[in-house]
Amino acid sequence: MQTTFSLGTIDWTIILIYFIFVLGIGWALKRYMKDSKAFLEAGRSLPAWVTGLAFISANLGALEMIGMAASGAKYGMIIIHHFLIGAIPAMIFLAIFMMPFYYGSKARSVPEYLKLRFDEKTRGFNAFAFAIMTVFSSGISMYALALLAQVVMPLQIDWNFLGFQIGEFDVYLLISAFIVLVYMVLGGLTSAIYNEVLQFFLIVIGFAPLVFVGLKEIGGWEGIQANLPADMLHSWKYTGSTDNPMGVNWFGVFFGLGFVLSFGYWCTNFLVVQRGMAAGSMSAARKTPLIGALPKMFLPLLVVVPGMIALALSNMGELEIPLKAGTSVQDFDKVIPVLLMRYMPMGVLGLGITALMASFMSGMAGNVSAFNTVFTYDIYQSYIQPGKSDTHYLKVGKWTTVVGVLVSIITAYVARSFNNVMDFLQLIFAFVNAPLFAAFLLGMFWKRTTGHAAFWGLIGGTIAAAIHHGLTLPAGAAAGVKGGYFGWVHTYGSEMAQNYWTAVYAFSAALLLTLVITLLTKKLKTDDELKGLVYSLTPRVQDDSKHWYQKPEVLAVVVGVIFIILSIIVW
Description:
Low-confidence stretches: none
Strand order of the largest sheet: 1-2
Order of helices and strands: HHHHHHHEEHHHHHHHHHHHHEEHH
Shape: globular
């Protein structure tokens, strides 16, 4: 079996041009980074198509490229829920109902919105939790890029530095971190967003040939059907019980993923919401998630189908999927590199590898940009050094970028213990986003909800997530980072099923606690103070679109219809 790539001059040239282009974008934008608003908020001036593509590209890092291909091989077609029920309804809800609150309130971040709606301590809790989540997410992208690089360009490094063994994985980790650090420090959020748009087109152009050639070799969809179990070929058909590759039933998918995790991620995660808040108008901000939803629904063709092709070829004896180091477990995270090695000829291979690298680096940059905004505004300016000049906060934002990258390097090593990075990422979302969604849901639609209730609801939800995760394990796992650290009361069919139910428990506990404590505590904010922050107290949005077909509501209907049709097709 071929284990390394054979890159030609043209492949190296394409990769080199990409890195020059990425750094050039940062350099070109450097002169516009004159204040903290330009660096951390992109000046709120970008058009909808740019923020829309960046919105989806910020989510298109390691999560989609390595993680979803791995999930395609591990779970089959059922993972497509993450692109349909697990994304589209929440994106429509964000565009129509929630973006007007974020954009209209003039809050600079999601934690700052929580301060306006609830109180300071709720903002503080979310700011710290989000900061931790983003550096973990950034670390996953770094891990994936280093994983790819050591397959593409093996260096046979085995150094000893102060007692630490350093291999090629470690070297590539540091190189990728350095490049992201440079263009982020130069161009801030605007640099991250324009690089995300570039990344989107590179992924489509770079991966379409891989899918086409793979399908042609295996005999199209019929070839996949002939070489995979029937329960890996449908999204809903086998969810009447837990007897399917993911080990989760329809309720876990619908409520755990489709409601809690999906709405928790797409509606409250500042990483993606920040792209909409960088738009030049309210109408553009509301269209941002809807424009992103259109390509999102078709991305499984590029990221899930390759994983299924790889497993089908493996079942036919035509492809060997590498094992996780020191184990007998297939390393599905290496599916994409293996397919690139198999199918991509010289020249096209460079394009495919560049597309992968672009996705990882944008994934890192997206999380780091969200981290530095939240840390600078919601932690440093609020608790450490309030009342300083804008120039001071601009410098802090740039230094925070450095710190965010350094901490992300550490978290990349934690990601190595999972054989599917998607599982690890969903676990983080279950801990952070699920209870946060409960606070948002009640806070935006029930004006009686109090700050004390939201704060203790968030804490209670996070503790509930820890308890559930600490008392359960996925099948075949030992107690540790994958759960069971408090004991063992239940085993789930897979890590993903465990993640869905962790989210359900976290959300339910946060919702119940917030409801009860609200009824036991006094409402401190007046209706006037809550205008623009609570649905029933906020005037309806006056859309500035020139024609009816340009309105976000019309685009939302189009997205909804396509979502329903695709859900039926892959049933």
